[in-house]
Structures are given as C-alpha cells and as structure tokens.
Amino acid sequence: xxxxxxxxxxxxxxxxxxxxxxxxxxxxxxxxxxxxxxxxxxxxxxxxxxxxxxxxxxxxxxxxxxxxxxxxxxxxxxxxxxxxxxxxxxxxxxxxxxxxxxxxxxxxxxxxxxxxxxxxxxxxxxxxxxxxxxxxxxxxxxxxxxxxxxxxxxxxxxxxxxxxxxxxxxxxxxxxxxxxxxxxxxxxxxxxxxxxxxxxxxxxxxxxxxxxxxxxxxxxxxxxxxxxxxxxxxxxxxxxxxxxxxxxxxxxxxxxxxxxxxxxxxxxxxxxx
Length: 273
Known about the structure:
The structure is a single chain. By secondary structure, the protein is α/β, with parallel strands linked by helices. The chain has one domain: P-loop containing nucleotide triphosphate hydrolases (Rossmann fold, 3-Layer(aba) Sandwich). Helix content is 42%, strand content 21%. The chain has a 6-stranded mixed β-sheet with strand order 6-7-8-3-9-10, with helices on both faces. A 4-stranded antiparallel β-sheet has the order 2-1-4-5. Helix 5 crosses helix 6 and helix 9 crosses helix 10. It is globular and about 50 Å long.
C-alpha cells in the first residue's frame, strides 16, 4: 500500500506545486489523477519515486518512507516502483526484447547489463510479458519501428519486468488516438487486476478516466479538491477541479472532437457504398 502524508513541493522560485497532499492507495486499486495543466499531477507522481524531491511530507511504500532514503537505499527501493511514461522513454536503437529486459537492470550486476547477458529466468519472463501485451511477434524489432500504441505496450512490459509493487503511469494515452487509448487503458486495468497491483494514473482525458478508473482524485493548484468514485464526478465536481471557464472550454472541445469523429465515420461509410 502507498500512503502519502502531507506531501508538499515548493520550488526555489516560491511556486507551490503540491500543498499538503494526504491520501492512500490500497493494494489492487487503480487511481486516476485529473486536473488542469499545472495542477501538480506529474509532480505528485515524480515526488513518489523522487524524480522530483518533495519539500515536506512522507511517502510510505509499505513501511518504508521513500522521502527519507539516501541515494543507495532509494535506488534499491525504486525497483519496487514501475514507471510508465507518456513519451515511452524507450531506447529506440534497441530491440523490443532488450527494452523490456532493461526493467531488470536494478537486479543484475553491471557486467551482465553491459554485455546484455541476462539470466534465463529474466528472458523467459520477458517473453511472457511480451505475449501478455500482444507483442510476441515483435520481440526482435527495433523500438523505433513500432507504432505509438506498440511502444506504450513495450513500456508497460518493461515496467512489469521489475516485478513492481506499485505502478506510476504518467499520461499513457496523451499521444495516442481514441481507439488505441482505450486499448491501452483496458490492458493496464486488466494487468493490475490480475496481479493486485496498485496504480496511480495521471490522465488528462476525463471520460477515459471515468470509464476505467476505480477512484479519481482531482488536483487544483497542488491541492486535492476531489477524491471519490467516478460516478461522483458530477458537473459541479468537475467545475471545482477545472474552474467553470476551463471546464466549459474542455467540454466544448470534447464535443467538437466527437462531432469530427462522427463526420469522419459518415464519410468512410459513404465511400464504402
């Protein structure tokens, strides 16, 4: 279980990115983070694994306070946290298999990683993960030969190769089309359910969050202003999170996108006749 207590981040400029965030994510729960740009969503995720150093508060992963660890202990504890990035963060010149195996770098001696000689068990596990995310036939392809959705699947497999106790997912669908976005979210939900993995997903797409998340936390100006199940995310709650002007603009944009997609489907149907 992950527990945040009074987590805060203030930059040297005086800007506050997070202010006294306190919440728990129990085993098996998938929690979505929503909020306007600059609300602190990415900062919260990065404070958990200390890619950004918190100013104050606790980050308890089980009985370990990650916020208090020195570099050596932090490096070992980070093995417990799988990270999935918006821009995939793959090594494009390496194969899909090599990218997945990079999830094991924290567990093998340097010489093995340098020579790319991973234990047989790690290789077998990597093949299992590639099969699970639907990429077995692409194992020997270079990462730069894949589509965006395929790259995100590699990122998921790489994170799972760590055998993590927690997944941190930073805008996994921001660069994907609507259909692929739903496929990726469905895959994440299924994998977390299969292994009881808790996950925090920073997601900008509110309807997608409502469809797939078990719990939604809304941030505004670094503070938690909503915490509840998707069905409680009313228009009033969304206005509290985004502000009336921002939420109306976002809703109008969603409606325009839906209209454009419907028009495109109609044109394709007409051409098919």
